[in-house]
């Protein structure tokens, strides 16, 4: 009789993500604390500078990247690293194609966030202009750094897969734990988007 033990890499990743969740909880606490003590009129004046339609479009890109990432995981679990058909036949894609698309979408999100920062700075909202500016850039900026970390993880995943002589369980596990992190980053952003852009 065999005992199925949990994968230690997966367990370690989940424990680490739990610690990251506490970090973001502290950022949310900081955000709500600043909001509670700041003058409501000044807070409203600052939030009016946010481009909600643009942020929504950027958020949609990140959310869809979670779907493409999961499709990459499904391909990895079938031990299918590369496509078996033409590039335009998405149904025949392997892990490489889906994860590359996820990487591109994540990079688009970062580019969109930098574009938004530049627009807000032109309107006078900087990290030192007000308490709102500080809390806005800290919360979204730290999340952006986590997205960059995910992009680096995708590069490591793809590099390891291409270097492997045979795509096996180790490569599939790397894809799975990378997806855990990416889904976590997406869920955190949805919470940030709801709090910062919608609950003004």
UniProtKB/TrEMBL annotation:
Pfam families: COX3 (PF00510). Its EC number is 7.1.1.9. PROSITE patterns: COX3 (PS50253). It is found in: Cell membrane. It is an enzyme of class 7 (translocase). One of its GO terms (biological process) is aerobic electron transport chain. Keywords: Cell membrane, Membrane, Translocase, Transmembrane, Transmembrane helix. One of its GO terms (cellular component) is plasma membrane. It is a multi-pass membrane protein. It catalyses: 4 Fe(II)-[cytochrome c] + O2 + 8 H(+)(in) = 4 Fe(III)-[cytochrome c] + 2 H2O + 4 H(+)(out). GO terms for molecular function: cytochrome-c oxidase activity. The chain crosses the membrane at residues 12-34, 54-76, 97-115, 135-159, 180-199. Residues 1-200 form the Heme-copper oxidase subunit III family profile domain. Belongs to the cytochrome c oxidase subunit 3 family. This is cytochrome-c oxidase. It comes from Xylanimonas allomyrinae.
């Amino acid at each position: 009789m065999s005992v199925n033990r949990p994968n230690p890499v997966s367990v370690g990743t989940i424990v680490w993500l739990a610690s990251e969740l506490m970090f973001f909880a502290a950022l949310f606490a900081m955000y709500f604390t600043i909001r509670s003590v700041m003058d409501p009129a000044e807070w409203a004046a600052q939030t009016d500078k946010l481009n909600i339609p643009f942020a929504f479009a950027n958020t949609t890109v990140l959310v869809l990247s979670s779907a493409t990432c999961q499709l990459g995981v499904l391909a990895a679990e079938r031990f299918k690293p590369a496509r078996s058909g033409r590039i335009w036949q998405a149904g025949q894609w392997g892990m490489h194609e889906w994860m590359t698309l996820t990487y591109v979408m994540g990079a688009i999100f970062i580019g969109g966030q930098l574009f938004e920062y530049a627009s807000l700075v032109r309107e006078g909202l900087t990290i030192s202009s007000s308490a709102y500016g500080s809390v806005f850039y800290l919360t979204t900026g730290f999340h952006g750094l986590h997205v960059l970390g995910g992009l680096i993880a995708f590069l490591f995943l793809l590099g390891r897969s291409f270097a492997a002589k045979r795509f096996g369980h180790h490569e599939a596990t790397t894809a799975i734990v990378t997806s855990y992190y990416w889904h976590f980053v997406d869920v955190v952003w949805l919470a940030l988007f709801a709090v910062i852009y919608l609950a003004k």
